[in-house]
């Protein structure tokens, strides 16, 4: 019973808005969150585009592209959770609607089903856009010594640079 009562006190403290004291000010956390929200929006938009292309790719490279797109969207799906959870750890709510993602994202979505080659080109550009967004967010996080966010963004940058390179290699 003592454990339940201690847990109840903890939950009440959280519910009352126990201040976050992780060594970053509210302003610093808000600044990093704004950048992470753009990263989440770009990442989600790229995820959705990659999954769409996985479903709709045709042509002589069907098997190769179908599998590559699945590998990429599956990895991206896992990353979305990490980005959103980092926003929450910083004490803010993560954007989670198509409207918010459309407003925050720098990636243009296709309006029709492109050819396989156009899909590859769009995914190269999408991965590169995520890289640019990650670099901007990384600079903000680094400027306030937010090492966990820097680490997360460094990992994302590595993956999206590699994805862009692999996709680009298909066009040569």
TrEMBL record:
SUPFAM superfamilies: Ferritin-like. InterPro entries: DPS_DNA-bd (IPR002177), DPS_DNA-bd_CS (IPR023188), Ferritin-like (IPR012347), Ferritin-like_SF (IPR009078), Ferritin_DPS_dom (IPR008331). Coiled coil: none annotated. Gene3D superfamilies: 1.20.1260.10. It comes from the Bacteria. Residues 34-172 form the Ferritin/DPS domain. GO terms for molecular function: ferric iron binding; oxidoreductase activity, acting on metal ions. Belongs to the Dps family. This is DNA starvation/stationary phase protection protein. It comes from Pollutimonas thiosulfatoxidans.
